[in-house]
Amino acid sequence: MNDLVVASLRKTFRLSKKQQKIEKTKAKHKVALNGLSFVAHRGGIYGLLGPNGAGKTTALRCISTLIRPDEGSISIDGFSTKNDSTEIRKRIAFLTSELKLDDHFTPNYLYRYFSNLHGIDEKTASLRKETLFTRFGIDRFQEVKVGDLSTGMKQKLSLAISLVHDPDFIIFDEPTNGLDILTARTVVDYLKEMRAEGKAIIISTHILDVVEKLCDRVGIIIDGTLKVDGSLNEVKSQADDHSLETVFFTLMEESSGEAHA
């Protein structure tokens, strides 16, 4: 199977006393993922939609082999994240707002470094850099230190670096978070282009408008549990007004009621 398949993921974290205060709970553990399952197909964009703290980032970190789930499985291109992490990393790009680029390096240096890290030959790396740097307007800032770049340019550089090896599976955590409207549009347009190339894309977001504009399929996750999973139209059809917003907030209210029951 050439899709990205997530099956019955469960992940629990131990809470420190400080975290217990922040979470306003006496519980020593928090269930971040509770039986999460979905499939992301090539040529499509899957949106994992949920409020902050719902488990979206934890799910993407598991998929990206950064952390291991307690239970369940993840396969990409038929490879298991548990047994074939090296093969998985060759096939994915993972971009998060937590990716911090060293202020003292230039885009040219960083691109060269990550190309070498992925074992890409010089000719291929050069051609791909020209394409990506031109596409995102980085070419004019190739020798400018990262610390002197705008927030939007840093995000576009992070995107270019994540794609140096031309992966087939793209995983983005909050892809437009904190971006100005022009940079956000550039990122959204490029995600659409990659979908047209047949790549499988997963994004996590809490922004309904991003899902509406981008996603073919959507899963709504609340408190680590996937409440709804289907095509965008299927999910929207669950509300009388066919509004994703109505579906989302109805599920939030139901979950809040269950928590206080």
Low-confidence stretches: none
Give the helices and strands as they follow along the chain.
EHEEHEEHEHHHEHEHEEHH
Any idea what the CATH superfamily is called? P-loop containing nucleotide triphosphate hydrolases
Q: What does the radius of gyration come to? A: 19 Å
Q: Strands of the biggest beta sheet: in what spatial order? A: 6-7-8-3-9-10
CATH architecture: 3-Layer(aba) Sandwich
The total beta strand count reads 10
How many distinct domains? 1
Could you give the distance between the termini?
Answer: 42 Å
Q: What does the main sheet amount to? A: 6 strands, mixed
Averaged pLDDT? 91
Note the beta-strand portion: 15-25%
Topology (SSEs and partners):
Elements: E1 4-14, H1 17-23, E2 29-40, E3 44-49, H2 56-63, E4 71-76, E5 79-80, H3 85-91, E6 92-95, H4 107-117, H5 122-135, H6 151-162, E7 169-173, H7 181-196, E8 200-205, H8 208-214, E9 217-222, E10 225-231, H9 232-236, H10 244-260
Parallel strand pairs: 3-8, 3-9, 6-7, 7-8
Antiparallel strand pairs: 1-2, 1-4, 4-5, 9-10
Helix pairs in contact: 4-6
